[in-house]
Amino acid sequence: MSDGHEHNGHENVPSRQRRRFPEISSRAYEHPADRSALVALRKLSGFDTVFKALSGLLPERSLRLLFLSDSVRVSEQQFADLNDMLRDACYILDLEKVPPMYVNQDPVPNAMCIGLDEPIIVVTTGLVELLDEEEMRAVIGHEVGHALSGHSVYRTILLFLTSLAVRVAWIPLGNLAIMAIVTALREWFRKSELSADRAGLLVGQDLQASMRGLMKLAGGHHLHQMNVDAFLKQAEEYEAGGDLRDSVLKILNVLPRSHPFTTVRAAELKKWSESRDYQRIMDGHYPRRSEDKDTSVSGSFRESASHYATHVKSSKDPLMKLVTDIAGGAGDLGGRVRRGFGGFTSAPPKDGPRRDDRDDSGTGD
Description:
Elements: H1 32-43, H2 47-54, H3 60-70, E1 72-73, H4 80-92, E2 101-104, E3 111-114, E4 120-124, H5 125-130, H6 133-149, H7 151-167, H8 172-204, H9 207-219, H10 228-240, H11 244-254, H12 262-273, H13 276-282, H14 297-314, H15 318-328, H16 333-338
Parallel strand pairs: 2-4
Antiparallel strand pairs: 1-2, 3-4
């Protein structure tokens, strides 16, 4: 537990009745798809050096100076409560160097961890004003999780390329090439957000606070008019509802986003909080950073593939059910195709005569 003692340069860390995770590896909480991508990148000899060389045009120094000159840097003198939460989060996840954090004037609730050489955390005033202390603690833990996982480098690249794509939109081939990279980075980053949500839970160790924070991001500060169980039911309805057309629309809706939808994040986090993996971490059984060098790339990819196979099989989404049916050679697949998009609803066909076989004179449905 955090005990307020000096450790790794963290003096006067606020005392919290929360479990601490010395030497925890980011692999402990990373989403399988996120983890396999990061392990593969880390195994590539000289990847970071080449990546930074290719990213030489990135205005990182300008970015740091911008926040230094036009935002408020969190410290013991400014936003002291946020400073305590930041130091506590770094202490719990055993992140030796506390990243600088800034509060930026922006009514839109948001937070990010960016930077190539060293991560910096930025939170907006809209977020500070929206969340209570425990909800904010989970968010700061979320951003510290990004820092521990090394996500800030790729997040910075994503922000730069998104901006560049707008500037070269008039060049058809150039814009297509950049957007292909941006789309791939967004897909990875959405998975990294699920990882960081888990880190936020490890720091806050309060599932209800994490749920409340996600609900507020979706529906504003009217918490007294919202309900966690009802919010999670929305995620179930989103996954299972509609037909194949809705599945396609879901994909199109999420493509331009850097974050998963909030109901999906809430459902994913709750599921993980009830898993054996989470309990093992809380019991002190988790991978250490000293073991990262021995991580198997192929093993990580196998774990990721297994995760997705299980996800597809258990998913209620019409498109995922179609994939499962095709893989299993479902006998009714031809009939569903003949009936059009409406045949690919999430509800399985009931036993008994099909609509095509019924007497049209009956009342039907």
